[in-house]
Every structure is written in structure tokens, then in C-alpha cells.
Amino acid sequence: MNELPNCPQCDSSYTYEDQAMLVCPECGHEWSKDSTGDSEGDLSIKDSNGNPLQDGDTITVIKDLKIKGSSQVVKVGTKVKNIRLVDGDHDIDCKIPGIGAMKLKSEFVKKV
């Protein structure tokens, strides 16, 4: 059996695998199996004000965003908790209250 690495945040030895991620049950930190511990530093995604974003941050939407294929709109000032950074054009993966799972561009959000 392969030995899983300790959590990079709290150094817990009780980490486990969840699909392509490693998870710490004590502090809730998630990171990629491929990384050496700090995957957030590799992406270097910044919000509209130039502040660096990390997994788990809380953000606020700074512009009304129409949802493609729907009549719904994500309103200015909507707070989104516990974001996840991903590669691609829409670099924030999140769950918006009242709407559900979405991908956002970092240029339309600011860090809280």
C-alpha cells in the first residue's frame, strides 16, 4: 500500500484519496495528488483588484452576470464561499447560493 503524504496545512497523517484529490479530514484542506503540497501557488490567479486568489477563499461578484441558456442573473454583490481554482478560461469553480454549481472568470470577482 502506498503511503499518503501528510496534510501540508496541519501536518495530519490521516489524509485520504478522493478521486484526483487528497483530503485532510481534520482541517478540510484539499490538494492535488500530483502536486508537492502547494497547488495554489502554481496557478497564480488574481481577482479584479490584483489580489491573489486561493482555494477556499470567499469572493464577491462585481458585475451582473447573465447565465447562458437561462433567464437567471448572478447579481452584483453576490457572495460566494469556498471557491476552487481550475485551469482554463473560466478559472473559478464554485457553488452560488440559489443558482448552483458554476464556473466564473476571475476578472468579474473580488476577494472578500
Integer average pLDDT:
86
Portion of residues in helices? under 10%
Number of strands: 11
Count, helices: 1
Biggest sheet, open or closed, and with what strands and sense? 3 strands, antiparallel
Shape: elongated
Summarize the topology.
Layout: E1 16-18, E2 21-23, E3 30-32, H1 40-43, E4 59-61, E5 65-66, E6 73-74, E7 79-80, E8 84-85, E9 92-96, E10 100-104, E11 109-111
Antiparallel strand pairs: 1-2, 2-3, 4-7, 4-11, 5-6, 8-9, 9-10
Explain what the structure shows.
Helices cover 4% and strands 29% of the residues. The chain is built from one helix and eleven strands; from the N terminus they run βββαββββββββ. It has one helix at residues 40-43, and strands spanning 16-18, 21-23, 30-32, 59-61, 65-66, 73-74, 79-80, 84-85, 92-96, 100-104, 109-111. The strands form four sheets. It has a three-stranded antiparallel beta sheet with strand order 1-2-3, with no helix packed on it. The radius of gyration is 16 Å and the shape is elongated. The N and C termini lie far apart (42 Å). Residues 3-32 form the Protein YjdM N-terminal domain. Residues 31-51 are annotated as: Disordered. InterPro entries: YjdM, YjdM_C, YjdM_N. This is Zinc ribbon domain-containing protein YjdM.
Summarize the structure.
The chain has 112 residues and is mainly beta. It is built from one helix and eleven strands, in the order βββαββββββββ. The longest helix has 4 residues.
